[in-house]
């Protein structure tokens, strides 16, 4: 499974990418929205996108996911945020939330959940529509 990690914080991006690589995932890194969108189009086999909620002043992680959905629907998005007050109770069916600060175990659990959601949606489109998005607490 290919994972795209998008974060404008270099240390966070590197640590998340290293953790996922050691767990056996093929990982792509993007430090901003433009790079993430380019990689998303270049590598359509990316199944899970881990993105920070606040990427830059022009676009959020949720808005970036919306742009990615226009060209590739079969992905799971993990929205990471340290702004707990900004986290709402409802998200699209293909998105889950990971609260910052998170550790290696929480990140791996979130990605495994995203992979499982993709497998579930492959097995049954009806399950995909009825599944509630999980809030992944760290």
TrEMBL record:
Keyword Signal attached: no
Keyword Phosphoprotein: yes
Coiled coil segments of this chain: none
Keywords associated with the record: Phosphoprotein
Recorded superkingdom: Bacteria
Pfam families cross-referenced by the UniProt entry: Response_reg (PF00072)
Response regulatory domain span: 2-115
InterPro entries given in the database record: CheY-like_superfamily (IPR011006), Sig_transdc_resp-reg_receiver (IPR001789)
Gene3D superfamilies according to UniProt: 3.40.50.2300
4-aspartylphosphate: residues carrying this PTM: 52
Classification via SUPFAM superfamilies: CheY-like
Protein's recorded name: Response regulator
Species the sequence originates in: Dyella flava
């Amino acid at each position: 499974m290919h994972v795209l990690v998008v974060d404008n914080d270099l240390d966070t991006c590197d640590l998340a990418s290293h953790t996922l690589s050691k767990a056996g995932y093929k990982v792509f890194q993007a430090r901003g929205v433009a790079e993430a969108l380019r990689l998303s189009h270049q590598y359509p086999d990316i199944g899970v996108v881990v993105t920070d909620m606040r990427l830059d002043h022009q676009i959020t992680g949720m808005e970036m996911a919306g742009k990615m959905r226009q060209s590739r629907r079969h992905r799971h998005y993990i929205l990471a945020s340290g702004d707990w007050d900004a986290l709402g109770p409802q998200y699209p069916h293909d998105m889950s939330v990971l609260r910052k600060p998170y550790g290696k175990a929480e990140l791996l659990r979130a990605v495994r959940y995203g992979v499982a959601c993709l497998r579930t949606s492959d097995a049954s489109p009806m399950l995909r529509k009825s599944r509630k998005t999980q809030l992944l607490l760290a």
